[in-house]
Amino acid sequence: MNDFTLWDMARGLLLAARWTIALSLLAFIGGGAVGIFMLLLRTSRSRVLSLFARLYIELFQGTPLLMQLFITFFGLPLLGVDTTSWGAASLALTLWSSAFLAEIWRGCVDAVPRGQWEASASLAMNYLQQMRHVVLPQALRLAIAPTVGFSVQIIKGTALTSIIGFMEISKAGTIITNATFQPFTVYAMVAALYFILCWPLSRLAKHLERKLYVAHRH
Amino acid sequence: MSLIAIDSVHKHFGNNHVLKGVSLEIEAGEVIAVIGKSGSGKSTLLRCVNGLESIDGGSITVDQVKLGKDETHLRELRLKVGMIFQQFNLFPHLSAGRNVMLSQQVVKKTGRARAEQLARETLARVGLAEKFDAMPEQLSGGQQQRVAIARALAMEPRALLCDEITSALDPELVNEVLTVVRGLADAGMTLMMVTHEMRFAREVCDRVIFMHQGKVHEVGPPDAVFSNPQTAELKQFLGMVG
Questions:
Q1: pLDDT of B42 over the 90 cut
Q2: Exposed e or buried b for every residue in B5-17, given b needs 16+ CB within 10 A?
Q3: pLDDT at A213 (0 to 100)
Q4: Which stretches of chain B sit within 8 Å of chain A by CB?
Q5: Distance (Å, rounded) from C-alpha A87 to C-alpha A75?
Q6: What are phi and psi for residue A32, nearest 5 degrees?
Q7: Share of chain A above pLDDT 70, in %
Q8: How confident is the model at residue A218 (pLDDT cuts 50, 70, 90)?
């Protein structure tokens, strides 16, 4: 009964890989946008805003991504919001990445010397002007490598969305396994696909880290 | 009315009472040296004057603008007083010229052409006209500090606060910075400087403030303070330094 060729399997996985990539990109861009907002709250001088951002970050960092996916997927309908596995997966991954990115970037902002804040303050700049013109341009340089590194985590995180039925590589792998009864072959191919997506990014992160940090130290 | 009025200012860092009721009046055009041991509160006092540290009691007024906690007041105050730091604190990602232009453009909304013109003028004033496009890391410490002075001057402040501005410099670079400061003093700029350069203080300043344990301990013209100290603490301090 097994008339699947290796190519059939690979083709199924490759088609699903498009969705892994799409979801990763969406989570990265959406998470970046929400993350920068959370970063501004987290580093703002208002205690309330900063505390809110801290709780937000702790919440998403302190619970498994899987639970976040379940809660989004099963919780939104309870609130009367129609949801699909695609919608729930993008929302949950966006929020999850935003928390991690905000925290990574906060570390980079903290690494900018205090004197830079003081000098810009003494020149009468307000908080947003200091951030925009003085602190973020310097923090950005430090942030590039760990941010690229985190994109690898996002890609691997998309695998969990298979559980709420989102058709990405892992979900396709399960379906193909059920049809072919060749779990080892199929999942080896799944793993290889993730590796092909992630490895270049890891290498890029390492490369950027070496290049930018050396330059930074003069 | 004096340009800078400091009235019984108190400042705590936790349990540490750093400023214990400091009062001081500084007239426009005056050049003031603040001396004292480390921990005497002299840098803290300077930092309070432009709101880098909040005060717990008393008041500080610069050119009729009172130090307040809200951003609008702080901003207005900081437009009146510039500050130069021990560690220069140039923005490392911007050229010398852009360092001087940035705040004019961002805070005062000065147009690019006008900001650049003023930046070139102030850089020329500190003897660095040809360094407009140099990055901070390409400049010596003395040159960086002079760019920092130009950056503060470009905001056209009424007074400049100098917080040990030569302390991080190699000895051979100290003079080029002091020469610039002397030029500012001669041009009538109001200066309040925390310094360890006693000879400079003696030659350039109108008044010397000796701080001790969070209070103004002795004040007077440099000749009186250095040649004829009244209190045992000042005598000891001068002996220690000289």
A1: yes
A2: bbeebbbeeeeee
A3: 64
A4: 50-52, 71, 74-75, 78-79, 82-83, 85, 87, 89-93, 102-103, 106-107, 137, 148, 151-152, 155
A5: 13
A6: -65, -45
A7: 96
A8: very low
Question: Helix, strand or coil for residue B119?
Answer: helix
DSSP summary character for residue B181: H
**Helix H segments across chain A?**
6-43, 47-61, 65-78, 85-111, 114-122, 127-130, 136-157, 169-180, 183-217
Measure CB to CB from residue A116 to each of B51, B89, B152 and give the nearest one: B89
CA atoms within 13 A on the CB side of B222: 16
Can you name the CATH fold of B4-241? Rossmann fold (3.40.50)
Query: How many Å apart are CA A99 and CA B4, to the nearest integer?
Result: 46
A123, B90: Cβ pair inside 8 Å? no
Q: Is A47 on the interface with B (CB under 8 A)?
A: no
The answer to ipTM > 0.95 is: no
Torsion (CA) B222, B223, B229, B235 in degrees, nearest 10: 70
Look at residue A217 in the predicted model and tell me its pLDDT.
47
What domains lie within chain A, and their CATH numbers? 6-217 (1.10.3720.10)
Q: Count of residues for chain B?
A: 242
- A124 CB within 8 Å of a chain B CB: yes
Give the neighbor-by-neighbor strand order of the sheet with B65-66.
B16-26, B4-13, B57-62, B65-66
Q: How close is the nearest chain B Cα to the Cα of A41, in Å?
A: 17
Domain residue spans of chain B: 4-241
- Tell if the CB–CB gap between A122 and B83 is shorter than 8 Å: yes
Q: What are the beta bridge partners of residue B20?
A: B10
DSSP at B155: T
Cβ <8 Å between B92 and A133: no
Residue B226 has pLDDT above 50, yes or no: yes
Q: Does the pLDDT of residue A32 top 50, yes or no?
A: yes
Q: Which two tokens stand for residue A64?
A: 């498994």
Give, for B76, the enclosing helix (H) or strand (E).
helix B71-80
d(CA A3, CA A21): 29
Rounded CA-CA distance B43/A149 in Å is 42
Mean per-residue pLDDT, B5-12:
94
